[in-house]
Amino acid sequence: MKKGVVDMGKYSFKTIRNAIVFGMCMVISAGLLAGPGQTVTLKAASGRPQLMRGSLYLSERAEDDSGLYLDAFHDSLRLTPESAAAFPALNKALEDYRTDSEKKAKEMAEEYLKQRKEHPENVYDEQVPYAIQNQCCVRRADETAVSFLYSDYSYAGGVHGGTDVSSGNYDTGSGKEILLNDIVKDKDGLVEALKKELVEKYGENTFFPEMPETLAKEVRQEDDLKLTWVLEPQGVCFFFSPYEIGPYASGVLSVTLPYTSYGDLFTENYRPAEDAGASVEMLDYETLDLDVDRDGKIDRISVDRELDDEGDVITGVKIKVNDQELSPSKGKGDLYYYSMNQMIFLTADGKAWLYLFGLTDNDYSSIDIYDLSSGKAAFVDSVDLAVSSCDVEGEDDLNYSAVLTDPDLMPLTKRFDILSTYSGSKTFKLADNGLPESSDPYYMIKGKIQLKSKKDIHLDQVDEKGNVTKKNVIVPSGSTFDLYRTDGEKVLDARLKDGSLVRFIVEGTYPALIDGVNAEDLFEELFYAG
């Protein structure tokens, strides 16, 4: 049997279908809110590089299977194959960063496991695993610059763990790392602006007394100190880890200096086009600085999660924009997410949309959409979509997903129950109402889902564009059909062994009917290859 192919044998149509559902659920639960095995080709729009992110899982269970020794993952960021070819210098820089950071994460995981196993006397709580959790958020990716942020949480015993933040900033064309000197032209002014905005955001009592001196040293890179910062669509955002300028209880601190207020502090080198759409991925529990209503003033946006009694399930959210708070009810029952990611889209027409990506029961995904354009949150709608995954040759152990950096290019996936259960992907754009819309009539099905007929079937033949070229073609018994694309309603196109495409019109789900005939009476075998 070839690698990657699961031979389901001659089980019943329904039994095999259920096995596929279970296998897909396992894939989604290990991934990043992407449909199982789905892929989409991302073509760079207006010279933008297209990114994808995968998680390297380094967890290990105890020998007696009583729980986890180590709960660990490391997000890895890279270009799609198409963008890697279009931006070779940037690709090399990101690949160097990725391989180095993955190596460090693996070494750290090995050291934590060694400590846990060899020194049980240092374990503070047997029920709490050691942890390494490195979350990556992309803050900007366009024709000029790529900026991303890492929030690295670690725990190796004791009362609490620790969090550090780090960042990467790269020139899109040359691939060279962007340094603070490349973007700042007034360092004294930068120190004063950071002090002012930090105190305004968090209050003076948040910081150590020596905070001003520390900021000055970091800006001038004295005593091996340096700032952590990222380029964003509206300005430059600066981050500070616990103990850096304030106590542990203060957490990770951040402040954005927008170009509209502090433009004279920065060079023109890496300012984005003002009329370009953009996105900003949010860290968990972050208070993000963005001017969502475009009044020239920074707005503070946060998404707080309400958890169940065990702390395992997200049962609600509180979305806050400045002093306006929304605890939404979506009108379809209580919120019940096992995980959630959040990001904000800024569109060229001056609007701002918050997207919450949630994973719920049976590993179904949905996106909850909120309009932030007026300076407060207003619920728009929920759609049953997820971020599409991307294939990376030779790296089956990582589940890579597209990073949504462009409102006009959003590869999303949806799950269907048309003859079988699978997901299909296509490219969407952000519509004027904040919802994703697509001009493509078909979702492309990834993975080899194959049916074998046990009766002659009369079907229409279609071309690659979906036009019917021959009607009522007899496809003989024993033919194999590779599921290819669907309109998501009842049209399902499949490829025959000779390369031609035929069309099923499927009515219903349980049972699925083709020309009024139960699908289980038409097919004898079904195979699934991831």
* CA(first)-CA(last) distance: 13 Å
SS-based class: alpha+beta
Mean pLDDT figure: 87
Number of DSSP strands? 35
Q: Which band does the percent of strand residues land in?
A: 35-45%
Overall spatial form: globular
Seen as an oligomer or otherwise, the chain set is single chain
Low-pLDDT regions: 1-45
What share of the residues lie within helices? 10-25%
Radius of gyration: 25 Å
The number of helical elements comes to 7
**Major beta sheet, specifics?**
15 strands, antiparallel
Q: Helices, strands, pairings?
A:
Blueprint (H helix, E strand, L loop, with lengths): L4 E2 L6 H17 L21 E7 L2 E2 L6 E12 L1 H6 L1 H31 L11 E12 L3 E11 L6 E10 L8 H4 L3 H16 L8 H10 L7 E4 L3 E6 L12 E6 H4 L15 E5 L4 E4 L8 E9 L6 E8 L2 E3 L12 E8 L5 E8 L5 E7 L6 E6 L2 E2 L1 E2 L9 E3 L7 E8 L3 E10 L5 E2 L5 E3 L2 E6 L3 E6 L5 E8 L4 E7 L4 E5 L5 E7 L5 E2 L2 E2 L4 E7 L1
Parallel strand pairs: 4-5
Antiparallel strand pairs: 1-35, 2-4, 2-22, 3-4, 5-6, 6-7, 8-9, 9-10, 11-16, 12-13, 13-14, 14-15, 16-17, 17-18, 18-19, 20-23, 21-22, 23-24, 24-25, 24-26, 26-30, 27-30, 27-35, 28-29, 28-32, 30-31, 31-32, 32-33, 33-34
Helix pairs in contact: 5-6
